[in-house]
Amino acid sequence: METAKQGETLHVLLIEDNEADVGLIRAALEELQAVDSAAGSVCLYVARDGKEARELLLSEARIGLVLLDHRLPGEDGLQWLEAIKSHSDLALRRLPVVMLSGNDTEEQIRRAYHAYASAYLIKPADPDGLRQMVGSLVAFWGQVARLPNRL
């Protein structure tokens, strides 16, 4: 899978069970696209639990970036990260996975990077900070970074 080039759509899978955070991230993406035409198009898929995430990851959706909440019901985000990065499908293993958390203990951060997280970000408490964070993610993974095509 590859990230979107300018003018293409970046398909983002948000694995998040907190409806307020889903709403804020969705609003930040919509605002970013309305304000910055150079940001490119973003298609957001939302999975609120492991079953939905699994279905979306294995579907024909061209997911180019995963935003993964660290705390999920049932399986935590770290378990999901490990499942993605050890999957038999090489394209899934290559997916950039950004961990999102309200908790920044050194041990959690270390474990996430040890499991091959692409980044570990603390969710800003304020909407402006969240918008900036989402804008930075889309700019980097959607326009700057290049990954190989799906094999």
TrEMBL record:
What sections of the sequence does the record tag as coiled-coil?
A: none
Report the residue ranges that make up the Response regulatory domain in this protein: 11-138
Q: Does the keyword Phosphoprotein apply?
A: yes
Quote the PROSITE patterns the UniProt record gives: RESPONSE_REGULATORY (PS50110)
Q: Alphabetically, which GO biological process terms does the record hold?
A: phosphorelay signal transduction system
State the UniProt keywords alphabetically: Phosphoprotein
Tell whether Phosphoprotein is among the UniProt keywords: yes
Modified positions (4-aspartylphosphate) are: D69
Which ranges does the record mark as transmembrane? none
**Gene3D superfamilies membership:** 3.40.50.2300
Mind telling me which PANTHER family this protein's record contains? RESPONSE REGULATOR RCP1, RESPONSE REGULATOR RCP1-RELATED
Protein name (Swiss-Prot/TrEMBL): Response regulator
> Which organism was this protein described from?
Deinococcus psychrotolerans
